[in-house]
Amino acid sequence: MRPTTPLRLAALPLLASLLTGCSKLVVLNPAGDVAAQQGDLVVIATVLMLLIIVPVIALTLWFAWRYRQGSRHAETDYAPDWHHSTKLELVIWAAPLVIIIALGAITWITTHKLDPYRPLDRISEQKALPENVKPLEVQVVSLDWKWLFVLPEQGIATVNELAAPVDRPIRFTLTSSTTMNAFYVPDLAGMIYTMPGMQTELNAVINQPGVFRGMSSHYSGAGFSGMNFRFHGLSEQDFEQWVARAKAEGQPLTRQAYLALAKPSERHPVERFSSVEAGLFDRVVGLCVEEGKTCMHQVMALDASRNRAHRSARALEAAAAQEICSADDTLPTFTARP
């Protein structure tokens, strides 16, 4: 027995759910306040654009039906000499102009408000940011093909797993070991790029407990499809237990351990480190984890000092030349000897 049309239509949402691998639209119903504000922006922008799209489509269909062949309107309303209507021109141009202005204003405001480098000014729409609250510092390194998370305050590190207390601001500082990538937790905030030799920043907060999916949203090679991690939203007590577990089970993350970890691997299992060598993240940013390698900031400082010395030497040469070829010396120099 073949399924009827209503049954086919009823199966479409289930099919979409299976194809996407999730039971809800995460972008429009996230668990974090920053992502929620970004989802609201998507909805507002879509509705504003539909204010033009829907009437245009409806009028196109209505005109096609009203002036179809054989319709009385096709004969009675025929006006071959008509060429202009001021009222119609005002409607055609004014409505899109107003929508563009509204979209521009909203985009300008939210671009500054949701700047990933901007510290949070609230926990959620219903909850203000407590005074003197200290964000959870998380240092992120994108490796081939896994994620390394360093929590300097707690003194631990993890691979492909991260946890944070609910309703506590999180400040991510991110970099990459070899190639550019993109850090993305749809329930938390928008994606932010990671680049070798550079550091980016992301401020966010998780408002609901649970286990959320994190991923790489930028293709970076063969193991890209398995470059996922789990993000846990926990209570303060559960977060402390998670930290204690890492300290009890893990091994120290030294420079040698990092170099071994940085070698390419696909679908790397969750790994925990009980301690982190001091200054490791800064060395990763400076591309100088290897013993004896000069860090990028030191190379730039040397280049700057060389440039200053070069400019000083040229200035001295110019001053000496000016003194030799002064106006008083010009006449004797070019006067013929007797």
From TrEMBL:
GO terms under cellular component: periplasmic space; plasma membrane
Stored InterPro entries: CcO_II, CcO_II-like_C, COX_ARM, Cupredoxin, CuRO_UO_II, Cyt_c_oxidase_su2_TM_dom, Cyt_c_oxidase_su2_TM_sf, Cyt_o_ubiquinol_oxidase_su2
Keyword Transmembrane helix recorded: yes
Gene Ontology BP, a term: ATP synthesis coupled electron transport
Gene3D superfamilies: 1.10.287.90, Cupredoxins - blue copper proteins
Membrane topology annotation: Multi-pass membrane protein
Residue spans crossing the bilayer: 41-65, 90-109
GO molecular function, one term: oxidoreductase activity, acting on diphenols and related substances as donors, oxygen as acceptor
Cell location: Cell membrane; Periplasm
Domain Cytochrome oxidase subunit II transmembrane region profile: 19-118
Family to which this protein belongs: Belongs to the cytochrome c oxidase subunit 2 family.
Name assigned to this protein: Ubiquinol oxidase subunit 2
Lineage, highest ranks first: Bacteria, Pseudomonadati, Pseudomonadota, Betaproteobacteria, Burkholderiales
Gene name, Swiss-Prot/TrEMBL: cyoA
